[in-house]
Fold:
Amino acid sequence: MKHNRATFPSWFPGGPSALCAGGLVEDPPWRALLAAVVLAIAGCGSDSSHAENVVVVYCSVDQEVAEPILAEFERQTGVHALARFDTEAAKTVGLVQRLRTEAARPVADVFWSGEVFHTIRLAREGRLEPYRSDVTRDWPAGLADSQGRWYGFALRARAVAWHTGRVRAEEAPRRIEDLLDPKWRGRLVMASPEFGTTSGHVAAWFAFYGPQRAAEILAGLKANGVRLVAGNSVAVRVVANGEADVCLTDSDDVYAAQRNGWPVAMRPLGHGDGGAMTIPNSAAVVRGAPHPEAARRLMAFLLGETTERLLVESDSHNAPVHLALAARYPQYAVPARLPVDYETVADCVPQAVSAAMKILK
Amino acid sequence: MIRPSGTQGLAAATGLLVGLVLVLPLAILYAAAVAEPAPAGLPWSTAQFAWLAARSMILAGVAALLAVVLGYVPGRILGTIQRGRLAMLALTLAPLVIPRHVLYYIWSMLLSPTTALGRFLAEQPQEVAQAAAMLTTSSVLVLGYWPLAALLVAHGWRNIDAEVLESGSLEAGPWQRFTRIHLPLMAEPLALAWAACFVLVLSEYATFHLAGVETLGAQLAVVYEFTGSTEAVARAAWPLVLVAAAVAAALTWGLRGRGEPQLHEPPREVRPWQWAVVAILAAVSLGAPLAILLTGLHGTGALGQFWSLQRDGLANSLLAAAAATVIALVAAAGVQALDRWGRGGRLLAAVMGTALLAAMFLPGSLVGAALLRVQILIGIPTPVGGGWWLLAVGQAARFAGVVVVIFRLARDSTDRHYDEMAGVDGAGWWAAGWHVRWPRAWPLVAGACVLTLMLSLTEVPATMMLLPPGVANFTQRLLNQMHYARDQHVIASCLALIGVYLVLVVPAVLVAVARLGRAPAAVLLVAAMIVGVSGCEPGVASPSGVQVLQIIGTSGRGPCEFLYPRAIAIDAGGDLFVADRTGRIQHLTGAGKMVDVIRLPETEKGYPTGMTVGPDGSLYVADTHYHRVLVYGKDGRLVRQFGGFGTGDGQFIYPTHVAIGPDGRVFVSEYGGNDRVSVWSPEGRFLDAFGRPGSGSGEFSRPSALALDAGRGILYVADACNHRIARYTLAGNLVGYFGSVGTGPGELRYPYGLALASDGRLVVCENGNNRVQVFSPEGASLRCLGLAGREPGQLAYPWGVAVDRQGHVFVVDAGNNRIQVWAL
Structure:
């Protein structure tokens, strides 16, 4: 933690030397000259002697959850983890786009995402490096890329949450189909389907039910006057404030509300007889990572039990995929997972979002 | 182009910032956006986009209108009051310290289900809670932008023609006055204020996003989500870019220099209800959020956690924001400097100022994306674990427009003639800045620093794009804390933000209160970005030992207010005549009450430096820059004038002062090549002249003042640049000199003013030594009074002096815009 946060600018007295990723060897002279001038002004010199003591991680997991984990990694390995975080508002896309623009001269070594669909896209674009180790052997089916370019762990469930003062637990919806009951008309809220995990959730309906039934579900939600808001946390706040009674959201957002003492309860949202949609964290090595060995060490750490345990015990309360942890933390387990393949869901995202926008807006 | 020395570097720095950081990156981004095909798969049709744009504009229009309505009264007060104006400015700017999205979150905590109000609302029908939430969103936007509207209203109000206002107000009631007179006169600044608020609301992202309100600015994130393309974002943002450019151009035009200063005093009536409005606004905008924060805090645990976990992020962010502030200051100063380069310079300044203002109005993500693109294009590696510079540059690009606006307001609230005078006296741009502009403008500069630093500290979109990996950041963490509803952490961060503001402001307020000198103020400002917006001019704390009887006047153009007064005369009854840079000669009683005003016929070239009252009560004015002497009757009407430009007999170059002999003869001193004293008959016929330029016997170097001792038959001439007093007989024969250059008793530096006490003692006003020295008729130094400074009993560039029959000395304290009355 200490090293991760204590990152004063290089010019600040006592701050560590700045490290510059990328090189200038093959650049045209004018570009090298211009860059050299800027670097000279900025006092930014490379420090290759410590290159393998550093790993750069682009992380879209909640900063306050991720930082203790990276601090633990630093403590165990002595490798400095320099993180670029996203805002929750940017829904991972800012970091993903950053990885794309830096593809020619990568800065990041590891991409650690709070979801999986953008990671799959990056893998398909060839921007991720295969990674295999003892840790990944026997990784749970469906939670890893066949070529080892990404691995999923520490699940969040898509949940239905309700205001405990307005809805009794026994009458609260259990399946997506329950939300289509007219008794919920004007009482529903969800995040806009073009963003984040909600887009993956809607895409999962297309993968699980097929396009026609998925469109009917969307039309049913529309008929019930579902209100769209900017994010899952906003949806929970809207319910907690009494502006709506029930929302679709992520489990970690409900845990956050409950931590604040808000009157909300939740359960994983079933789909027919198919269980709840889960969204794993994902980790991957960036192709051309400047610090490949450190990247492998961080990957091993992220996919190990320690990281997952810390995530389970964090405010986020993710559901573990390591069997030992699943046995130790049954309260956070997702009883039944929707049997969909994440790659298939990722394929469905564009179609699903487009349809959702047309139907819901 | 005329280029004041020392400004080229500033102008070049501004050019670099505007060209390389703003115009070029945005041009490249838009060139790519135009060249590339429109991205497929956007989640809206053209019709939906048009509806979104229209709805966003309606929302922004209404919010801007409400902001202008709320900002009108504080703006008028700000544009009206003299005393406490800068304190009022500080109060007005303070709400801008808390970003809108944070303000939104704070207010939404009030509706949280853990509060009594939240629980009450949760028990009501959904519509009630929804209405409360919508009210919160719109209120936050309005409360967030009224200060900006107030600033622009204040600028307009100060430039309003008070004569038109007053003449039109004679028979109208309050409402008619407002609708038929105030509104038409204020139409332009009100329109500008509305336009500025409109475009800022239109570009707003974080607040709308948190509130879940779909607007054009907020929906750019959707475009980014779908396409992952900054070009696509640039395409979608074109309406915002056009509106931003148009409003920036209009604002530049609205804030342009007005040429000659407004001769009429601004309206200055502030009614109690107007103060009440300001008090309510301040309470709602500042007091209430602070109260919500403090009452929502559960113990000190969150504060301790903030200190242990987030202080590094805060330190990093502060350092980057401080660097951004310095860059923004340099850029804005460059625009100001260019403005003094003549016509071409003004055009360049307008272009650059418009670019900086437009960048302020654009969505921050566009500025960030454009910069990032250029960084990658030219191959500058991304620094890891450091690299504050790109972030600082991006933040500076976003907020330099704020400093441009404040500098323009500062320029209009002071007087450009101070600069010109310093230039006449040989000061370069930098020297004039240090000695003339800085003492008056530092509170506003400091305010600009605080505001820019605080805005940079909490800027989100560009920061997220330009922040290097491995650098903890305050605003990023705060936004995430809000998203994850970590109320206690949010409260701690907000209190830290307010704490930073207080840490920045309090030392500057202490500077103002303690009235430290200019240098300490500068050291504090630079060392810790110690800034302030409270408005006393700095002064030197050393006691002068002078018995100050009265201070007459303050800065301004109103009755008994002065802008760099230089000439003074006193009549037999003890009434004073004071000429200053407003082109007025104010006729005041000895107690400092306004009697009448004489307006000089022409002032474009300059203002009088000396005058005297004749035995018949006529006022003789050395109209220095028009090379003539004006004679006004007791009724204030111009009776006659004599002289004209030239070196011959009966001509003047820069006449400085006038003295009247017991026989009615008129003695006129002059410099600028003639450097002599010419003698005229009472009717204005040239009689004789004595003296020539030089430093020898019988020679003058800038004879600046005359005093005539009729009893002793002596004419004293202040030979300013020879640092001596010459004594002549009334026939023009040299009697002798006393004084030499120096600071000790009996020595002189630039004696600019002379006055004769009734007992024959000569009172000399030394501009260079910032003191008054009393001599015996024979030239022995009797006393030195005063020293340099801003306190009572201290002087700043005194130009003139007069003595009444009771031995009261009236010192023209030009640099302090006042007349000090001392016991002799």
Q: What stands out?
A: Chain B touches chain A through 74 residues (CB under 8 Å). The longest helix of chain B spans residues 301-338. The first strand of chain B starts at residue 383 and ends at 384.
